[in-house]
Amino acid sequence: MTKTLTTTALGLLAVLGLTGTAVADIKIGASIAATGPAAFLGDPEAKTLEMLVEELNAAGGINGEKVELVLYDDGGDPNKARTFATRLVEDDEVSAIIGGSTTGTTMSILSVAEDAEVPFISLAGAIDIIDPVKPYTFKTPHTDRMACQKIFEDIQKRGLTKVGMISGTDGFGASMQAQCKAVVADYGIEIVADETYDPKDADMTAQLTKIKNTEGVQALVNPGFGQGPSIVTRNYKQLALDLPFYQSHGVASDGFIALAGADAAEGVRLPGTALLVADLLADDDAQKPAVTAYKAAFEAKTGAAVSTFGGYANDAFLILADALRRAGSSEPGAIRDAIEATAGLAGTTGVYTFSATDHLGLDLTAFRMLEIKDGKWTLVE
């Protein structure tokens, strides 16, 4: 899928036959998993970018210049993502790239963007994307390490010290498993059971039974994303595991509740974004304007509920548009410098402040600890 968006006015002229080939003033590229196994991530991301470009151009563009979005669907395939990133740089000559719905596709795009010195804002979670800092690469989601820290912080508050972990062996699950092991001791917590599953597995009862039979286990943590965590949640319910249960931010959407079943997901906690609890935010919450504006626009445009993942794309576009305005130029180096100088920009995921040593721009307070109650997301006080 290749999608090019230009201004409403140009589209109207084309229909009337009053214009030839239109060329936008600013070209932005994207490679996203709009289809395939990671479509639950990429579909809302693609729709978000299309919506925002349309809105921006209708409002006059950036500093009077219109924006063209060149969007490719990589299907979550790292090889396709690399091909599309190369095409965006060499053929489409974009000024910046947004994308990488998964860590695998992000790493492919990253290598191309860094070589070409084109700013890239990733929509994936792994800490390796921005640690160590790479000159042209930024990202909007919290890192998997931060998710582990938020989970262990909550477990510590509950007075628990021994956890069982069941992790997906995909890139996201393996990375978060490693990050959780790296920080768990900081919270006085011990991992007493450590199981894994393949993302294609249809039943995780055997692994969960081992955890259930592990002496002293007090809580369950599931690093993973996609359908796997939903199956784990259903199996958890079937085995009547009476343990506090934590999922990752990789499943922070209404789709997870639907796949797992509201009954099975009851009481599950995870670190998520303000977007999932927009109606519960205080009026003075710094993120409330950005969250409510995006939620209202996306749901009106698509008829679908917002997701954390579409929010990542929203924030990436906000960051890029803000940088373009301040840079006063579509030259990649100027955009990169402006992104790195971003300070106090409120999005759906958090309030971003980048620096030469921080290309994530978020701290742990950007995460909200959420719990599923009666099939809905609630804030853990």
From TrEMBL:
Pfam families reported in the protein's UniProt record: Peripla_BP_6
Ranges where the Leucine-binding protein domain occurs: 26-373
Residue intervals passing through the bilayer: none
Keywords carried by this UniProt record: Amino-acid transport, Signal, Transport
Transmembrane in keyword set: no
Position of the signal peptide: 1-24
Sections of the chain in a coiled coil: none
Family of this protein: Belongs to the leucine-binding protein family.
PANTHER family in alphabetical order: BLR7848 PROTEIN, LEUCINE-SPECIFIC-BINDING PROTEIN
The protein, known as: ABC transporter substrate-binding protein
